[in-house]
Amino acid sequence: MANQDAILNTTATSTMKITLKSADDKLFMVKEAIVMEFGVVKFFLENSTNLESTAIPLLNVSGSVLGRVIHYCEKSLSLHLILPPSTLLHLFERVAELILDDEDDESIVELVKAADYLDIKVLLAFVMPSIRKRFGLGDDKAVDFVYSAEAEEIFRRRATPASVGAGT
Amino acid sequence: MSQATEPPILRRRKNDLSDDIVLNILTRLPAKSVIRFRCVCKAWDSSITTPYFISTHLNNFAHDHDNDNGNGDGDGSIIHMPWHLRATKNSSNRAVCTVAFDLTFDRISEVEIPFDFPSGSAHIVGSCNGLLCLADIGNLNICDNVIYLWNPSIRKFKKLPDSCLGRLGFVKYGFAYHSENNDYKVVRISGYPGMRPPIPDEIEVYTLSSDSWRRVGMSLRVNVKVLDDCFLLPAPLVSGALHWISRVVEGEEERKVELIVSFDVNSEEFRMLRMPDGAMSIVRLQTFLASFKGKLAFLTFGQSEQRGGFQYSIWVMREYGVLESWNKLFVVPLERLAVCIAFTMCGSLLTHCLKTNNQEQKFVLVDTETLHEKDFDIQQPLCVANFMESLALLDGASMVSY
């Protein structure tokens, strides 16, 4: 169970941290186990030595987004433990919604695009149900829908004050 | 005068006990025995089903379970129910709860659950005076948010009417005994995340005496959202109030702070309590509230203060409402990553050690005072609540007998 081992490694003996650098040159020291969830970085990690001294650059992601990505990655890993989606899927999704309630529309879309770019499956599984619920998207809509013109239209409509009460 | 035989008259002999003494004795007998004695005679049946008898009986037994003076010597009992009922049906195809000792979790007896839940999974919202409140784990449809009140000792239950809100979001519950009115209340808090502009939680209260739900406002000035890491644990009832962990947006900078929100069962007012100092700064995976020997307890699970390993930290509020009285009573070290399933009133901690690539899952019961651990042989997580046999709602209207 990759996720559980991730959190096990996160909090137990391995305290190795890896440095990530955002597009605007902000540095983040992150536990190795969390970084291993980042698909784009994983290949790099598996094939490099002397990781503690290098800062891995993530060119498309700003510091503010990267900070939130790391934060929600940790939250989603621990939520997997408390409310395993294999048995309590809808509770898991609703709690994820509650946790993500802090994000406004624009920032949650930013988050999902970053999760997609960085190939973080765990984070996508955590955020996508909330995106679908919040914007009234069907279950068949995957992350690529978020980039479509149709999606842009939905976000725009929600953002205008006239649409209070619309949305979900 | 006729010498015709008169019908025999049952006369009380001089040394028979008076009614008062007989009833006094009956109020000290276990609930199951008292139920059987209803068929002895009409006088007994009508006396047993009076509110006065029921509350006297309750007071006699509640004292034995009264842990307020710290006498948690583990002779109380608990009832536990698996989360996924469909997986555990017995030979009569009914799901089963188990009654056990609260310190050791040693099994005492089993009780069949006489009703079903739409989603096949339910949790124990709370337990007061031997009356249990069970709710469906809940789903997206309002009609799936089914709640039952159930007294297994007298074999009666009642399904609650539907919500008075137009819609339900993500729900959290609380169940309480309203001692001033000898009544029972169920609180339902419904949250709607993702709405823009954000809307506050909607709250409704069910009162057994009126058999109806009614909206309740939260007069706190700040924007409170009830948020809890453990949706399947009951909200503790301490000092006449129910408690949940919440996120509050306060101040002009709109800082988000986590606090304890309490609902006074009598006045129906909400108040806020701060967490213990330093509790929220440690790296933690799980945070929740419980009742320990009648006091409010705050528990966190996270990294151990030493290198490697994990620990549960348990604070207890010695004097209700006094923030300085938060006292870090226990630190329970654990080697494996675990999720807490229950923390009983006498301080037994039931943990679910999670399956990893190298190790199977297991359930471990820890005594927080002695740190003694023992494996507990169950296959899936449970809901746990304190339990006692009682006659609660024997005189209740619209209860279903089975």
Labels describing this entry:
heterodimer, A: 168 residues, mainly alpha, three-stranded mixed beta sheet, 3 strands, 58% helix, disordered C terminus, B: 402 residues, mainly beta, five-stranded antiparallel beta sheet, 26 strands, 9% helix, globular
Write the SSE topology.
The complex is a heterodimer of chains A (168) and B (402).
Chain A: H1 2-11, E1 17-21, E2 27-31, H2 32-35, H3 39-46, E3 55-57, H4 63-82, H5 85-100, H6 105-117, H7 121-135, H8 149-159
Parallel strand pairs in A: 1-3
Antiparallel strand pairs in A: 1-2
Helix pairs in contact in A: 1-4, 4-5, 4-6, 5-7, 6-7
Chain B: H1 19-26, H2 31-36, H3 42-48, H4 51-64, E1 77-82, E2 96-101, E3 107-112, E4 122-128, E5 131-136, E6 147-151, E7 156-159, E8 170-178, E9 183-191, E10 202-207, E11 212-216, E12 223-226, E13 237-238, E14 241-250, E15 255-264, E16 270-273, E17 284-292, E18 295-303, E19 310-317, E20 326-334, E21 338-343, E22 348-353, E23 362-367, E24 373-376, E25 382-387, E26 400-401
Antiparallel strand pairs in B: 1-2, 1-25, 2-3, 4-5, 5-6, 6-7, 7-26, 8-9, 9-10, 10-11, 12-14, 13-14, 14-15, 15-16, 17-18, 18-19, 19-20, 21-22, 22-23, 23-24
Describe this structure in words.
- Chain A: It comes from Castanea mollissima (Chinese chestnut).
- Chain A: Keywords: Ubl conjugation pathway.
- The complex is a heterodimer of chains A (168) and B (402).
- By secondary structure, chain A is mostly helical.
- In chain A, 58% of the residues lie in helices and 8% in strands.
- Chain A has helices spanning 2-11, 32-35, 39-46, 63-82, 85-100, 105-117, 121-135, 149-159, and strands at residues 17-21, 27-31, 55-57.
- In chain A, helix 1 packs across helix 4 (63-82), helix 4 crosses helix 6 (105-117) and helix 5 (85-100) packs across helix 7 (121-135).
- Chain A is globular.
- Chain B is mainly beta.
- Chain B contains 4 helices and 26 strands.
- Chain B starts with 18 loop residues before the first helix and ends with a strand.
